[in-house]
């Protein structure tokens, strides 16, 4: 199960991408622009692929 959530708080965008399975899963990497990794549970993240149980939170200051 793959979960993608966008949250906007005070002109900041947080994107949560989580893999709740024991298998590697892919996601559409084009949804990411210039986001920075805020927190992750693996040392290395390959854009477009989540390892088993990998979770990553991206941060981007909204352009107003």
Q: What are the defining features of this structure?
A:
two-stranded antiparallel ribbon, elongated, 64 residues, four-stranded antiparallel beta sheet, mainly beta
The DSSP helix count reads 0
- The average pLDDT score comes to 87
Helix/strand-derived class? mainly beta
Content of β-strand? over 45%
Question: CA-to-CA gap between the ends?
Answer: 33 Å
How would a crystallographer describe the biggest sheet? 4 strands, antiparallel
Helix and strand run: EEEEEE
List low-pLDDT spans: none
| Rg estimate, integer Å | 12 Å
What strand order characterises the main sheet?
1-2-6-4
Number of strands: 6
Shape: elongated
Q: What level of helicity do the residues show? A: under 10%
Q: How do you describe this structure in short?
A:
The chain contains no helices and six strands. The protein has strands at residues 2-9, 12-19, 25-26, 36-40, 49-50, 55-61.
Describe the structure.
The protein is mainly beta and 64 residues long. The chain has strands spanning 2-9, 12-19, 25-26, 36-40, 49-50, 55-61. A 4-stranded antiparallel β-sheet has the order 1-2-6-4, with no helix packed on it. The relative contact order is 0.35. The model has no long low-confidence stretch (mean pLDDT 87).
Protein topology:
Blueprint: E1 2-9, E2 12-19, E3 25-26, E4 36-40, E5 49-50, E6 55-61
